[in-house]
Amino acid sequence: MNALSVQKVSKVYNKTVQALRDITFEIREGELFGLVGPDGAGKSTLFNILTTLLLPDSGDIKILDMDLIADYKAVRQVIGYLPGTFSLYPDLSVKENLDFFAVMYKSDIEANMDLIRPIWRQIEPFSKRKAGKLSGGMKQKLALCCALIHRPRILFLDEPTTGVDPVSRKEFWEILQAIRTQGITVLVSTPYMDEATLCDRIALIQNGSILGIDTPEAIMKHFRGSLYTFRSADIFSLLNALKQCPLQCNYYPYGEHCHIAFYEDMEKAMPQFLQFLEEQHQEHGEITAIQPSIEDCFIEIVKMNSHE
Amino acid sequence: MRTILILIKKEFLQVFRNPLLLSILIVAPMVQFMIFPFCADYEIKVLDIAFIDHDRSNISQEIIHSFDASDIFVTHGILSNKKEANEMMKHDKVDIIVEFPAHFERLLMNGSPTRIAITANAINTTKAGIGVGYTQEIIGGYMQEYMAQNMHYSGNEIPANLNLSHIYWYNEQMNYKNLIVPGILVILVTLIGCYVTALNLVREKEIGTIEQVNVTPIRRWQFLLGKMIPFWILGMAEFILGLVIMKLVFGITVQGSIPMLLGITAIYLFVMLGLGFFISSVSENQLQAMFIVLFLFIIFVLLSGLFTPTEGMPKWAHYINYLNPMSFYMEVIKKVVLKGSAFISVQKETLVLVGMAIIVNTGAILSYQEKSK
Fold it and tell me: What ipTM did this prediction achieve?
């Protein structure tokens, strides 16, 4: 049985903004599924629809074989949702928030303590503190506890690590892996490409459309070009110069480096490229072939889709 | 049940942790009660009056003399013509001019129609209104006495053929505290019911907690009830606090039945709570909600007869007032608190409020469901 099945879901805001376009994907039970895409790709809209907060314009969604729209009451009992922004009561204490949401889900804290204990243990010392006075990481953990308190079968996390420091991010992903071992299906969205590799499967989403769904390994394997990286003294002038490049290629800044993917026979193309750089008077560091990261793959897929 | 109880508990925890809101709830009624009635004191201490007498009869002279006996009126004699009178009024020397027509006494005795014209300086409408009221009272009083003595007539009526230009005015004792103080009660209950509720719910929207609650399996009506009950209790507590202050500070006791007053207030609060919810469901943020509440609140207050008598309003304003829950409640408060009316004389208002409560709350639940499925 699929934990989640989304068929041709579309959503238009104010009759003009196409937030989602024919979104179709399935998540298997127990899977850790990542939704990867830049800001404004439609991730939050999709989350709002999947968590019964927003109605889609068209399409069909099934959660654990229940129709999302017709059975929304039953659906709410089996899903947990961690929104993108902290949305617990800041003027209630940590414990009061947890109690409140436990009752909202008609759930019992004690009965589900084993599920949240590893997280709860970290915030328990602050249980009398107002939720609004917690640090960012602690808020996130409390929100996760509240979203898990009724032992949902699917957990939705909308950009849980945005704005979180690298150490806490790593910790958070470890928690997600642990939750998953409890048999909970997890759908998580993130704008960080490096986190995508931590998922079982990922869907790349851009401008309201899904560009590709696969395991991170498969996506990286399907990189079509030959990828090279090199440094440049003046990356801006380099990128400008590359506009003139006669070769079939896709280039973009990547940190302090420039990544360039060629869609040519490299034995012929590389000398041509070196000659081109020389003609353009571009100084550059050593050009090395590298394995594409998930981000490179994403950029390639976006590029391919924009050509089609 | 457990769900609603924890919603109520949560709401009270939040109210009691919000020092600003709490102090507003307690301090606001006190401040309003202490300041407002004294500022809005409409009692008039001095009225300048002059007369034009085209009749020069016994009656007209006696009526003029009867004004001398009053503490409020300062008489400025009998003027020769209208022009002089207008001049005096223009220069603020007189507030009221009473003009007796020629043959006044003879016409009155014959039973022919005649009239005394009362002209008031209406720059200060309140003063003019009260001045005219006083003047009518004095003339009317004289006429009754006169009739009793000379015509062996002992009714409360002034002669039917005498027409005193008529302005209707409530509150014969001219004690405006009696009107203002219960009015403040109405304002308090309205503020808690509508304003605080609307802002509270919109705040949940702003900080996103409403979404977090919406993804839980609780029902809309449970959520709304969990919001309504705490604010309903707060509103009732505020009302009782107001009644206590009214008694302690102004010595105004509720003339009618207190349980009945509380019952009708409970209904009125539900109207206001529903309205607050409705406003919050159409507002995106607290600022928008605030503007809508303020807009409605001013209309409600102005039309409700708190500051201005509703009887003096044009017809169309009366029609708008049929939609104004505050005016019905104001009527109830006036009748029950001041006059001690029984339920029979406020049952129309009560029924209207019940109807409004049902309509407004249905609207609130529907608009709320529409937004969040």
Answer: 0.78
Q: What is the structure's pLDDT at B167?
A: 36
The pLDDT tens digits of the residues spanning B244-295 come to 888 888 788 888 899 999 999 999 999 999 999 999 988 988 999 999 999 9
- pLDDT higher than 50, residue B172: no
What does the alpha-carbon distance between residue B122 and residue B124 come to, in Å, rounded to a whole number?
Answer: 5
Range of the structural domain that residue B223 is part of:
2-40+176-372
User: Does position B171 have pLDDT exceeding 50, yes or no?
Assistant: no
- The partner residues of B52 in beta bridges, in order of sequence, read B79, B99
Looking at the structure of chain B, the number of domains it has is: 2
Helices (H), chain B: 2-16, 19-39, 58-68, 82-90, 104-110, 125-151, 177-190, 197-207, 209-214, 220-250, 258-282, 286-303, 315-321, 325-333, 347-372
Q: Are residues B126 and B92 in the same domain?
A: yes
Bridge partners, B50 (sequence order) = B97
Using the predicted structure, report yes or no on whether residue B173 has a pLDDT greater than 70: no
Looking at residue B90, its amino acid is K
User: A72 and B373 in contact by Cβ < 8 A?
Assistant: yes
CATH of A2-220, one of 3.30.310.250, 3.40.50.300, 1.10.10.10, 1.10.3720.10: 3.40.50.300
The pLDDT, as a whole number, for residue B28 is 78
B residues 206-225 closer than 8 Å to A (CB): 207-209, 211-218
CB burial class (10 A; 0-12, 13-18, 19+) of residue A135?
exposed
Q: CATH number of the domain that B108 lies in?
A: 3.40.1710.10
Quick: pLDDT tens for A95-150.
999 999 999 988 888 888 888 888 899 889 999 999 999 888 888 889 999 999 99
Which among A48, A54, A76, A104 is the top mutation candidate for probing chain B, defined by the most B β-carbons within 10 Å of its own β-carbon? A104
pLDDT tens digits along A31-55: 999 998 888 888 989 999 999 988 8
Measured CA to CA in angstroms, residue B318 lies from A194, B295, B307 at distances of 68, 18, 15
| Residue B202 shares a structural domain with residue B329 | yes
Claim to verify: residue B156 and residue B186 sit in the same structural domain? no
Better-predicted residue by pLDDT, B28 or A102: A102
Q: Nearest 5°: CA angle at A61, between A59 and A65? A: 145
Residue B320 lies in a domain: yes
- For B222, the closest chain A residue by CA position comes to A104
Q: What distance in Å separates the CA atoms of residue B193 and residue B197, rounded to the nearest whole number?
A: 6
Q: What is the pLDDT of residue B369?
A: 67
Q: Considering B120, B135, B164, which residue would you say is the last residue of a domain?
A: B164
Closest partner CB to A52 (pick from B14, B215, B218): B215
Counting residues of chain B whose pLDDT is more than 90, the rounded percentage is 17
Please check whether residues B138 and B254 belong to one and the same domain.
no
Residues of B in contact with A89 (CB under 8 A): 10, 14, 209
Residue A211: DSSP 8-state = E
Q: Check CB contact under 8 Å for A92 and B13.
A: yes
Which residues does chain B have within 8 Å of residue A101's beta carbon, measured at their own beta carbons? 212, 216
Average pLDDT value for residue range B4-30: 86
DSSP 8-state class, residue A15: T
Residue B170 located in a structural domain: no
CATH of the domain spanning A224-291: 3.30.70.270
Q: Same domain, yes or no, for B18 and B99?
A: no
